[in-house]
Amino acid sequence: MAGDLILISGVSGHIGYRTLVEALSAGYQVRAQVRGESSLQKVKTAPSIQPYLSHLSFITVPDIEAEGAWDEAVKGAKYIIHVASPIASPKYQDNEWEEKLISPAVRGTLSLLNSALRVAGPQLSRIVITASTLSIIPWTDVLAESGTTYTENSRTQRPSGPFGSTFEAYSASKVASFLETEYFLRREKPQWDVNFIAPSFTIGANELVTDASEILAGTNGTAFGIVLGEKSVVPTPSMSVHVNDIAKMHVRALDPSVAGGQVFIGVSNLSRTRWEDAERIVRRNFPEAVVKGLLPLGGERPTKNLNIDNSLTRKTLGMDFMDFEEQVKSVTEHYLKLKGEEAK
Question: In angstroms, rounded to a whole number, what is the distance separating the alpha carbons of residues 133 and 265?
């Protein structure tokens, strides 16, 4: 309910920041977790936050995996939205995937859940955790075009490796964290419940990116790399979602009228995103920028069909997902603004 206190972790990330703005605009009091002072200042000075500073406080949790790390953060919270988790990086070597991705994803979530169980207090009623579509889909099917349709009730087994890529190891981290959380809930039977938000490739303006050279950071690069001429031979599943929609899902999943114990999938276009369409979208909506050479185009990213039916999510949370065109336009407009150009 509006006015209640939410702890939100990972607010300096793409999804976390947008979820913070969504929660504040919905009238909640928010305690925002960051890892250090630089992240705190970046978030605190962002434009969309300014109208809500009186409803916002910060808490620093530098090591989210440590036992008891979340004890102070969870105290007094009515709700928790846990977004913080390791993200895939091409810098990781194959012998670092367990250390950098998989184990931290599990330990960080379990550390928060244990703190919530021990010290949060009886007022805590729900935790919403950011999972992934990769949490519930077998890796062997992600790019296989098997024809199988996945829903909110789909599940997969925890993969054991070895892993063939950083993306596969990241997928394993999301499966492991999701399954460990479900096991925790069955074992501990807390008085609060949990809902999961499972985003697909999340696209949309990231207000915390203030330099045009960083526009490809995170999953925005999946779509916008094509616009800037990047060529990738690595196929990508046909699933994407606007970051604003993912933020709305996190906040709507807190509503007491929405039952706990559910997974909600964030995917638009009925999982029929075609990554190569990014060029067509930009040509149609930003012709002057294309002529000027600001948007060089010519990039490549092959698409693999992946069937996802998230009708339960759309019905339960009342979601009308923005399509891939709106996602690409959002990033393009932000990029042109950072370049000091009009979005046309």
Answer: 7
- Let me know: does 224 contact 290? Beta carbons within 8 Å: no
Segment 147-171 mean pLDDT: 92
| Selection from 168, 246, 147 nearest residue 203 by Cα | 246
Q: Where are the beta strands (DSSP E) in 177-318?
A: 193-199, 201-203, 236-237, 240-242, 263-266, 303-304, 307-308
Cα–Cα distance measured from residue 291 to residue 296, given in angstroms and rounded to the nearest whole number: 9
Whether the CB-CB separation of 101 and 173 falls below 8 Å is answered with yes
Three-state DSSP state, 336? helix
Mean of pLDDT over the chain: 95
Q: Are 54 and 30 in contact (CB under 8 A)?
A: no
Give 130's pLDDT tier (boundaries 50, 70, 90): very high
pLDDT attached to residue 177: 97
Q: How far is CA 101 from CA 119, 170, 232, in A?
A: 27, 6, 23
Question: How many Å apart are CA 159 and CA 172, to the nearest integer?
Answer: 6
Spatial distance between the Cα atoms of 49 and 81, rounded to a whole number of angstroms: 18
Cα–Cα distance for residue pair 231/187, rounded to 1 Å: 47
Task: Report whether 74 contacts 47 (CB < 8 A).
Answer: no
> Which residue, among 203, 206, 182, 201, has the nearest Cα to 193 in the 3D structure?
182
CA distance 287 to 267: 28
Q: Quote the longest CA-to-CA distance of the chain.
A: 60
CB of 21 closer than 8 Å to CB of 44: no
Q: Is the pLDDT of residue 121 over 80?
A: yes
User: How far is the C-alpha of 220 from the C-alpha of 331, rounded, in Å?
Assistant: 7
Which residue type does 100 have?
Answer: K
- Dump pLDDT digits (tens) for 168-192: 999 999 999 999 999 999 999 999 9
Give the SS3 label for residue 112.
Answer: helix
pLDDT tens per residue, range 98-118: 888 899 999 999 999 999 999
> If phi over 0 gives left and psi between -120 and 50 gives alpha, with beta otherwise, what is residue 243?
alpha
pLDDT interval class at 152 (50, 70, 90):
very high
Q: For residue 149, what is the enclosing H or E element?
A: strand 149-150
